[in-house]
């Protein structure tokens, strides 16, 4: 156990997750995996509080997506170890006061990439209309019948918005293939991802860290 | 009265030449404004004289019988409302004049100018030898002028940023205000006690009145903050920090004020009193919120049943809110917090229940009331300055101003040090500066000072003078310099662009994602609790408070409908798609993003004949007769319902006209397509909507008439449709649902269209196709009816989604 921890800590020095947090996460990991070395989809699937989450499937899928592991591989794996688990979690760390502008920019890109990968289920570098519709459908999946049709309309509108902001002039015969990462960045410019996509649990300076410990 | 001139000095000293010019301009504005009320006021005098003459003549003729007064004058009868109207008129005209002078609004904040106007008006009244009316009387201020402004702020409070920064705001509002009060009060007392060699009147000042004064002067004023911050367009974070603080510090001020007022009579304070003060603070703030929330829920619940009497809907919002304020004030709870809570709680439910028109009414009424109140408050502040008994004491006033500035800076810097430890988005030095500098004082402080009793506080006049000086200092010096400073420091400005649908999708996506990740971490952070609360809200609260189907509508769909609605209205107002306000003309349309279909055969289509003039005329005829019928049926006047008579207002009329034209064009065009080619399926409502959502590329070109029978993909073939198809789709018809057969008919018609496409080419004789089209005209009529209604009643409709179905691949 100790050696495992040192190994993982070693490789995450740069991700600014503190040792204490890693310990907490490791405890949680062991609880989820029933003290196994790896975790699989069914482990995450059985978390009761996730049941109500409309995008549960996508969240779980993101953990097994190889693109989120900072490697140049694509596709998904069946099981992940703690190291990979931590890697996914590191996408949710908040910026600190010391973070420079460039680092913030990099962080923002990384977070956006994570979101992008969640949408791009086809692994082809673009979010197609069909994929985007799926996302919106999932979002509305808890709202019953009206969800499906509205989802289509909303996804279409959203897609059209992307297309018209990024490629204002299109010939009628042109076909907008889908949202590329650059376009994705462009449309979510206003959201300030680096300051919004974080979990307090991973914040070094917060006292709420203790909560994590007591519940895990 | 030497003190009076003294009080002017902060505004008057050190005026440079351009500022003198400005002053001159202000006088001009005043004259422009005062001519009207003066003219209005003088007219009764003239009539009075005539009347007197009449009397004389009559009197000489008949000695016994008193003549029937043909014209009588009774000014006292109408005096109060008349004078109130004059003040309101003056305020409105001032506001009008202010915005008519070029360049001035860019330099001087409105509040400064209004105070100056007040000073001049007060001076004129004084010169005329009249008694200056006690305009800024505390009753009037707290019961009439303040509530509209606070309700406006509370109702339109941006909940999300407010809740996200609640900790920081509370810290500034509670701890910051406490710190300010004690720092200013304490040091002021200390300053008053020095100079033992030269005993002055200041030595009589005790510690408790000093603290009372400190607590009055320390609170940041929402009215002043709003007036200045709305003009500088600062970014949302800073705005909500300063503004939120000014709202929430009310509870602290109320408690401190009553506490010190009470104790200064007794003269001593015990530990128990301090303890009671803390409890009282909790009661005052939480009680205020509770009262507000109860009234908010009551409003929401009432609005559930107003669907038949739309006209009085807005009234419920105003009356319940005012009741909340009064109820809170009755128990000396924080009325401001009650109003804020009331507005914020009721808003989501009320908006789902009431009609679109009522919503607009509420918005405009609130804006109107609050802006008039604000104007009046600033003018009255000026008048009260001229009027008030002043006691100018150089030491006291100067020390107060300096202490106010110093304590604010120390307080903000000190508190941010603590707060930044807990914040993810840290407050930078620039932010701290703006928060400190934006701490305006205003009329609330003045009114509280005015409430003090002369017997209890012999220094009341000196207090009032100092308060007014501080207010003038913050409003004039800080208010005028904050804008250049914001520019100089390059503080991030507010983003003007409205939210896009993609941003909304991702905001929601992010919420769920973060909740999910927290769940996986096994950590119950604030996303987890927010999610719990949302679910509770959806499951129980919405069902109770929102009528009908809308309660089930998810937020994203609601947002989408709202956006759609707004764009539809913009589109119609701007001329049915001829001149869209959007800057970039985009040629992207739905077909650019739809997966491609096998291209239909083009050459064949060209050989087909175009629609003849005769046919066109025939269709026109059908359309006309049908439209007239719907009109007649609808023309029933009902005073209590806005919904039933859509033809009453010009907007609907315009809409109908436009719709008629577009409809016709579209019809012809559609027929052309239909008759000539088995073309690609016509725009489904979804497509149109999508197009509409993009808000671009809906240019209406006459050229499409000629090119209409060209096969798609051709954007122009679609270009006339969105305007036509869009309108029926956006709306909701609560009153009379579209008859099911008509929907089916349309669907079938479209399905036939689609089938044809699937089967490839199938030419049909043109005459055979008019059959299915005819019943559709009737639908159009009905849809129009629906459409006009929808403008007063937005919401989702069941059939709307049905129409989408057959077209989506």
What does this structure look like?
The complex is a heterodimer of chains A (216) and B (809). With 216 residues, chain A is mainly α. Chain A is built from 11 helices and 4 strands. Chain A has a two-stranded antiparallel sheet. Chain A is globular. Chain A starts with a helix and ends with a helix. The relative contact order of chain A is 0.13. Chain B is built from 33 helices and no strands. By secondary structure, chain B is mostly helical.
Which regions of chain A have little confidence, pLDDT < 50, spanning 5+ residues?
A: 1-15, 203-216
Radius of gyration of chain B: 33 Å
Low-confidence spans of chain B: 1-20, 22-50, 576-586, 596-612, 625-652, 671-781, 783-809
| Helix content percent band of chain B | over 70%
SSE blueprint and pairings:
The complex is a heterodimer of chains A (216) and B (809).
Chain A: H1 2-11, H2 19-32, E1 38-40, H3 41-45, H4 56-63, E2 79-81, H5 82-89, H6 101-119, E3 126-127, H7 129-139, H8 145-166, E4 179-180, H9 181-187, H10 193-196, H11 209-215
Antiparallel strand pairs in A: 1-2, 3-4
Chain B: H1 2-12, H2 17-61, H3 75-100, H4 104-107, H5 110-127, H6 138-155, H7 159-164, H8 166-193, H9 207-218, H10 222-232, H11 236-266, H12 271-303, H13 313-330, H14 335-353, H15 356-387, H16 394-420, H17 429-437, H18 443-451, H19 460-489, H20 501-521, H21 526-545, H22 555-573, H23 590-593, H24 602-607, H25 613-634, H26 650-676, H27 685-694, H28 703-707, H29 715-719, H30 721-730, H31 740-759, H32 770-792, H33 798-804
Task: List the keywords.
heterodimer, A: 216 residues, mainly alpha, two-stranded antiparallel sheet, 53% helix, globular, disordered N terminus, B: 809 residues, 72% helix, 0% strand, disordered C terminus, EF_hand_dom (chain A), cell membrane (chain A)
């Amino acid at each position: 156990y100790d050696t495992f921890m040192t190994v993982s800590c070693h490789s995450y020095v740069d991700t600014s997750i503190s040792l204490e947090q890693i310990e907490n996460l490791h405890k949680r990991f062991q609880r989820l995996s029933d003290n196994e070395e790896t975790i699989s989809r069914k482990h995450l699937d059985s978390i009761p509080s996730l049941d109500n989450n409309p995008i549960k499937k996508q969240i779980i899928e993101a953990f097994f997506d190889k693109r989120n592991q900072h490697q140049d591989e694509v596709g998904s794996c069946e099981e992940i170890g703690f190291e990979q688990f931590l890697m996914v979690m590191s996408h949710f760390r908040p910026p600190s006061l010391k973070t420079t502008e460039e680092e913030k920019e990099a962080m923002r890109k990384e977070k956006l990439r994570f979101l992008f990968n969640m949408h791009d289920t086809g692994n082809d570098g673009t979010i197609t209309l069909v994929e985007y519709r799926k996302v919106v459908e999932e979002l509305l999946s808890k709202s019953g019948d009206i969800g499906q049709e509205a989802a289509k309309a909303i996804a279409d509108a959203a897609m059209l918005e992307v297309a018209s902001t990024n490629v204002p002039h299109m010939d009628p015969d042109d076909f907008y293939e889908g949202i590329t990462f650059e376009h994705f960045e462009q449309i979510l410019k206003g959201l300030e991802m680096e300051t919004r996509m974080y979990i307090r649990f991973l914040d070094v300076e917060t006292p709420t860290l203790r909560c994590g410990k007591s519940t895990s | 009265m030497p003190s009076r001139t003294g009080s002017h000095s902060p505004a008057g000293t050190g005026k440079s030449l351009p500022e003198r010019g400005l002053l001159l301009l202000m006088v001009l504005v005043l004259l422009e404004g005062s001519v009207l009320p003066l003219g209005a006021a003088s007219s009764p005098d003239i009539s009075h004289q005539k009347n007197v003459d009449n009397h004389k003549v009559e009197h000489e003729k008949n000695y016994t019988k008193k003549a029937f007064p043909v014209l009588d004058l009774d000014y006292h009868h109408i005096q109060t409302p008349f004078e109130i109207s004059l003040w309101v008129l003056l305020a409105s005209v001032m506001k009008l004049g202010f915005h008519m002078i070029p360049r001035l609004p860019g330099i001087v904040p409105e509040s400064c100018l209004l105070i100056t106007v007040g000073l001049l008006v007060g001076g004129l009244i004084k010169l005329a030898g009249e008694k200056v009316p006690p305009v800024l009387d505390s009753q009037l201020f707290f019961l009439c002028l303040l509530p509209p402004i606070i309700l406006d702020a509370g109702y339109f409070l941006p909940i999300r940023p407010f809740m996200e920064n609640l900790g920081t705001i509370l810290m500034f509002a509670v701890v910051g205000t406490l710190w300010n009060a004690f720092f200013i009060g304490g040091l002021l007392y200390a300053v008053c006690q020095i100079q033992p060699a030269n005993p002055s009147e200041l030595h009589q000042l005790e510690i408790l009145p000093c603290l009372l004064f400190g607590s009055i002067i320390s609170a940041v004023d929402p009215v002043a903050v709003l007036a200045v911050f709305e003009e500088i367009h600062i970014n949302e974070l800073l705005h909500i920090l300063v503004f939120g603080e000014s709202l929430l510090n009310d509870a602290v001020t109320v408690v401190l004020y009553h506490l010190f007022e009470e104790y200064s009579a007794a003269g001593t304070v015990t530990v128990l009193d301090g303890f009671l003060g803390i409890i009282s603070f909790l009661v005052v703030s939480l009680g205020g919120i509770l009262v507000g929330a109860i009234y908010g829920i009551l409003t929401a619940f009432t609005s559930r049943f107003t669907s038949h009497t739309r006209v009085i809907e807005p009234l419920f919002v105003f009356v319940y809110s005012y009741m909340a304020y009064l109820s809170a004030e009755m128990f000396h709870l924080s009325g401001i917090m009650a109003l804020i809570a009331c507005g914020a709680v009721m808003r989501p439910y009320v908006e789902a229940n009431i009609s679109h028109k009522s919503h607009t009414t509420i918005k405009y009424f609130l804006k109107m009331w609050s802006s008039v109140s604000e104007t009046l408050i600033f003018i009255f502040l000026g008048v009260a300055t001229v009027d008030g008994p002043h006691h100018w004491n150089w030491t006291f006033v100067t020390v107060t101003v300096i202490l106010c500035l110093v304590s604010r800076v120390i307080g903000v810097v000190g508190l941010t040090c603590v707060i930044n430890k807990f914040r993810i988005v840290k407050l930078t030095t620039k932010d701290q500066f703006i928060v400190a500098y934006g701490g305006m004082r205003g009329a609330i402080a003045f009114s509280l000072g005015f409430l003090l009793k002369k017997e209890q506080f012999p220094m009341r006049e000196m207090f009032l003078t100092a308060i007014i000086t501080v207010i003038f200092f913050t409003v004039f010096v800080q208010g005028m310099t904050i804008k250049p400073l914001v520019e100089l420091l390059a503080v991030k400005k507010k983003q003007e662009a409205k939210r896009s649908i993609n941003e909304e999708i991702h905001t929601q996506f992010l919420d769920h994602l973060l909740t999910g990740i927290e769940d996986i971490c096994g950590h119950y952070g604030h996303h987890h609790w927010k999610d719990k609360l949302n679910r509770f809200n959806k499951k129980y609260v919405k069902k109770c408070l929102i009528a009908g189907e809308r309660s089930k509508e998810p937020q994203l769909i609601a947002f989408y409908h709202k956006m759609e609605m707004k764009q539809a209205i913009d589109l119609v107002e701007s001329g049915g798609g001829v001149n869209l306000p959007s800057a970039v003309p985009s040629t992207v349309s739905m077909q650019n993003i739809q997966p491609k279909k096998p291209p239909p055969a083009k050459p064949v289509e060209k050989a087909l004949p175009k629609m003849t003039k005769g046919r066109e005329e025939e269709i026109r005829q059908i359309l006309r007769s049908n439209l007239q019928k719907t009109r007649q049926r609808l023309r029933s006047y009902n005073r209590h319902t806005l919904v039933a008579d859509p033809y009453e207002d010009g907007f609907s009329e315009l809409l109908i006209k436009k719709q008629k034209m577009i409809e016709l064009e579209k019809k012809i065009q559609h027929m052309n397509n239909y008759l000539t080619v088995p073309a690609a399926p016509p725009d489904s409502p979804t497509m149109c909507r999508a197009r509409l959502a993009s808000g671009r590329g809906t240019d209406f070109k006459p050229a499409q008439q000629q090119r209409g029978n060209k096969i798609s993909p051709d954007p122009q073939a679609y270009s006339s449709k969105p305007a036509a198809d869009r309108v029926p789709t956006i709306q909701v018809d609560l009153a009379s649902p579209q008859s099911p057969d008509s929907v089916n008919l349309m669907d079938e018609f479209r399905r036939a269209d689609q089938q044809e496409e699937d089967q490839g080419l199938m030419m049909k004789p043109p005459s055979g196709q008019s059959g299915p089209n005819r019943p559709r005209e009737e639908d159009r009529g009905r849809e129009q009816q629906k459409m006009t209604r929808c403008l007063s009643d937005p919401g989702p409709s069941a059939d709307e989604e049905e129409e989408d179905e057959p077209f989506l691949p």
